[in-house]
Amino acid sequence: MTRKHKQHKTLIRRIKTYGRYLRKSLASPKSISALAVMVIVFSFILIKVNDDKNIYTADLLATIAKVESNDNYNAYFGNASNSQILFTSMPIKDVLAWQDDFVAKGNASSAVGRYQFVDSTLRGLVTQLKIDQNAIFDKPLQDKLAVALLERRGLREYIDTKLSREEFAHNLSKEWAALPKAIGDNPQQSYYAGDGLNHARLSINEIFSSIDTLRKIN
User: pTM above 0.85?
Assistant: First the structure.
């Protein structure tokens, strides 16, 4: 049994335990206490669901990061090996300001971080997820933002078999230019091939293999 499967079984046992406690509390006349217990239980479950979300996306995120940033949370466009500018210690508002300044100086892209978020994408995610711009752009937050992009591109639909592997891979190629577009003419090419900046750095089989892990882990 894998470590992830053990974690899943442990989660189920804990939910059942909290469920029994909740039923006992609801049978009590102390409704306020029962309500408090309910809030705790559902908060616990939601936190674990989010944790599991990171678990089952880990392989795919690692594959994307490898070709987008050489797995460097402090990477930026043109400097995948950057270790001088520590984006992982900056508030989001400072990262956005840095991106604005970087592009104003004539650079072709504002992409930063492990998943190479451009400024418009980062601003959109911050708004969508209601993230305080004073939050630090650290590793966990970057991973959370990347999962949100996976979901935007059809993660849940793929998991629920409403989207084919090929369609999901194609959707991802619209988000990350280093991925092959997977379908259509010249499927090995980047969706943005021809813009003078981007080309696919991953084979179709490699992205398919990483996508396949989503269902295996889930």
Answer: no
